[in-house]
User: Fold these one by one.
Assistant:
Number 1:
Amino acid sequence: MDFRETVENSMSGFEELVKKIPGYKGYKEKEMRREADTILRERIARELENYWSQMNDLKSQMLTGAAISQLDDMGRVSRRLQTLIDKVKAAAQGYAGFFDAVKVKEKELDALYEFDVNLLAQVDGLADAIAGVQAALDAEDGIPAAVRALNKHVGELLQTFASRTDAVLNAAGMTADDLEQAEEF
């Protein structure tokens, strides 16, 4: 689902009329791109929160039997996922924070949106990792390996999200060093 189309289709008649004012169309298109990315990030956060809830259910199941030895590790994974949720919710929309030093254009906003679309696809992989832990719990076998696999997937998501700034900088033809120099002035 492309949230950019959803945002564009929700424009009112007044917005359609005002869009014809010189200079406004480009401004409105940038705002629509930002809004679409916000909607997408909200969806990513909801998906992650759903998986976080599933992890808490798994932790409850670990309170008895041999799985109790993995409870601390599962708690660490859960906290890492909560960190990712918080980062996704607080992520810059293309005009705040460190993006002030970069003139964000449509190309950069599109790169940000595409980055978030790819992140959503990676988030879906959590379902398999959580199912692996559930299967290990049900079989009472392979629980440590399943928890490690889940932890690895959450770690990969955190690493991916950490490169979100690079996606915008690359689209702008900049590097992190360029951004640091721009922020100094």
Number 2:
Amino acid sequence: MLYVGVDLHKHSISLCVVDLVGRERKVIERKRFCCDDEEAILAYFARLGPYEAVVEATASYEWFVQLIEPTAKRVVLAHPGKLRVIAESKNKTDKLDAQTLAEFLALDQVPESWRPTPRVRDHRTLVRLRAYVQGRITSAKNKLRWIVASYNADRTDLFSRAGRAYLEQIDLSAADRFAADLLCEELDQHAVRLRTVDKRLKQFAQAAPIAEQEARAVLASIPCVGPVTTEVVLAETGDVRRFGSQRKATAYAGLAPGIRQSDKRTKQLPITKAGSRLLRTALVELAWRLTNKTRRWGLLYERLKKRCGAKKAIVAVARRAWCVIVSLLHSGQAYRPIGEPPAG
């Protein structure tokens, strides 16, 4: 059995083929290809015979995995954050990185990363596109408010129909009027795009398999969890049943606090912020809605706020809400308040 380490970049690929003889790892061959030469890459791997390959789970790995998967016995995705030996090496080259990956694979010591299914990848594309469009809308609104505020003319309903009519009546300078008109045009365009993406997401949800439909029903039963939060959770995590514990799920969301310990000294660090920023943002926004609209979560937030401050308290509420979501998705049961008997 041969073990191939792949150092994948945007324009080139460095390969290192290693054979395991007893406990000794022997480098058989090194190769380098251009990414656009897919025929040569596929022909090379087809000639290797039985082999396993490992590649880091970077942003552009999917095309390569799909290319060699039919000829490989196994393709492993290495977790870039956990494979610190490459990042911390003093002598870091493409050849050495590929060799390190191959040797770790030969010893079966590669920290593996999860590979999303094709449906989850498509879901992520739509959800992240929606987040991008929403971000552009927010940015345009902020710029427009800044212009209006410069004339002491801002108002809360500036983006309603009455507010837009009011904006037309403000005596702006020629440059500010030009900027305001373009920003209003941009807002209208992005609003159309947002409605189009939302429509596509609804169509996507209608074609969901049974397991995803059940997960959507569970999320819909949770207070303050709307369609946007549901789409983000499902797209960014896939099937949460792959998490063996709530601790792993919390670490995946980047909501786990760090810790530094030496002898008798222990120091609590901020949350790691690893993983999907979109998921973490959605959970924090959910925490704010829960604290403002439900008594139980509001009391929890106030108690934590007195102990550790507002910022840490809302993150703690988001972490607890995420644990509740993961538990419900694991069990398949709908949310019910404490003290309420189960349905049926």
